[in-house]
Amino acid sequence: MPTSTAKIEELVSREYQHGFYTPIEEETLPPGLNEDIVRLISAKKNEPAWLTEWRLKAYRHWLTMKEPTWQNVRYQPIDYNAIHYYSAPKMKSRPKSLDEVDPELLRTYEKLGIPLREQELLAGVAVDAVFDSVSVATTFKEKLAEHGVIFCSFSEAVQNYPDLVRQYLGTVVPYNDNFFAALNSAVFSDGSFCYVPKGVRCPMELSTYFRINAAKTGQFERTLIIADEGAYVSYLEGCTAPMRDENQLHAAVVELVALEGAEIKYSTVQNWYPGDKEGRGGIYNFVTKRGICLGRGSKISWTQIETGSAITWKYPSVILRGDDSVGEFYSVALTNHYQQADTGTKMIHLGRNTRSTILSKAISAGHGQNSYRGLVKVMRGAEHARNYTQCDSLLIGDRCGAHTFPYMEVRNSTAIVEHEATTSKISEEQLFYCQSRGILLEDAVSMIVSGFCRQVFQELPMEFAVEAHKLMGVSLEGAIG
Amino acid sequence: MSMSKQPLLEIRNLHVSVDGTPILRGIDLLIHRGEVHAIMGPNGSGKSTLCYVLAGREGYTVTKGQVLYEGRNLLEMSPEERAHAGLFLAFQYPVEIPGVGNMYFLRTALNAIRKHRGLEPIDAMDFLQLVREKAKLVGIDERLLKRSVNEGFSGGEKKRNEVLQMAILEPTLAILDETDSGLDIDALRIVADGVNALRNEQHAVLAITHYQRLLEYLVPDYVHVLVGGQIVRSGGPELAAELERRGYADLEPQATATLQ
To answer: Which residues does residue A326 pair with via DSSP β-bridges, in sequence order?
Structure first.
């Protein structure tokens, strides 16, 4: 291997920054899954009967399902009876203000760079902090309420807005959608809920910060976002976990509903613990994310920066039901060491003049394996539907892999579907060119990788662009110049 | 030029192989500040190899000889260190870097070099002014500055972009690897103007070229003829004209072995 390749591999092998564990007293249910556990989770959350029944329906269906094997990833079978399905920091009742929150928890989020005290927060970002199975704090609730925006933990939404939850829960990702979604529907513990009323432009970015802390625990959160007619909301999601030798399962479900003329922008910076250099440990990130553009002229845009997890399995998708609706998917996925990612999207065109854009950037280093898998489906009634897909892969070193699996199903002859794909290696020529101008090798690598991701980074809200750059080992200046 | 001064670049009996094949077979060259040297030679004579070895590219093995730059062992320095020390190579085929803004690239390079000189990073407004001024000098459309590095540039635009980088980085030793090839006469003149602007007692230029054309605008102090990995003749600017008339045919290394 040329020395520059060895150096590059070393540069992309940064230590995981968020691998600490918070020693805090947690209440954890015994491992394993059965109807009693499902009922117990529901009871702990004081849920109405219809929701308990819904969970049980999902659980019973899950028992009949098989774990999918079609994805291009390899892992040891998961023992679902060894997982704890619920773990929460001990609290007498849900704290009413931050003063009641365990200071240890506040410190945890501070250490992660997410201060929960409003005066310390980035102006313009409201945060819901989810720690293992429960939401521990939500900021800026009052300010949002002035605009009629509901932003709270899922558990609170079930108590305070049961009708909204009941109306939309499972309408985008049904309880029997797939193996992991069914599991989530049975045991989901918390997550975020957001409703933006008619014509309201949400005055700040909303964000949820997911933290896995407890060992041998799965995190199964559920997020539901509804943008009513003409509403707009931008939502950010961040994730980290401690370093551990065993794998942990994270099986979340996110549902987005955009009514007529509404727009939802959903951004993720996923930095779950990726495992160590030998591929030990790390999070299995098996997530179902889907949005529906229900109304005419609505828009859903997914942007994801996937740098963490041992295995990533997710396909944030859009069902374009309303005429003239728009779906977008922008993705950067980085796999290093022994990380594996099988990620992409599904764009289902039902309405007329519906448009979708897919832009996927995959970076593989070390022994990392990166697969793009995407489906573009144009149904019979989707007159003049359009899709543009671009998949680019960048290889760093010669032991990694990049794969592309595009699927297209077009049942309307007026549709236009385009697909472009490229695979390139970070070239010695580019690096030498930068170096010969006095730019240090590590800055040159950052610069080239950041240039490769630029189109996706541009889609991120400012605050997240900063985070994404840091994650990619890139200075902020890199992509903004 | 006083020969008592320390040379800027001193190449002594340099032998270089690529994948085990000898390409350079004993080069000697002395360059002082203030001088413009031209190296001419046919295809395959080792011109680009010499450029890459001086700039520090991987894959070129020095089997014998040494290179001193301001008295330091150049061959031990990384490509970045060479750039920091004032060495610059204008590439024959500049590479494209998608997604990296040309302006951002230039500013990063300039600041890296300034840092080495103990200077603060350049102020954004000052930088903009500097770039505009130099872009005008080398006849580069400002729109090119907003694009990604060399991406979608024509051959001529890439060459001008190299000269722009040179004008901004103000190297002590500028090496031009066939910067004239593929340029029309107007572009050639602009490139030569860019190089001539650098010409003073502090800087030196080593222009590698296949044709004499460039040397009409960029009158060198010395001309060297590189054939078969050796400098077979050296002389003044009149040598270039002679080569243009007679070609390289009777300058094979074996025929001129006595010159070594």
So the answer is: A299, A355
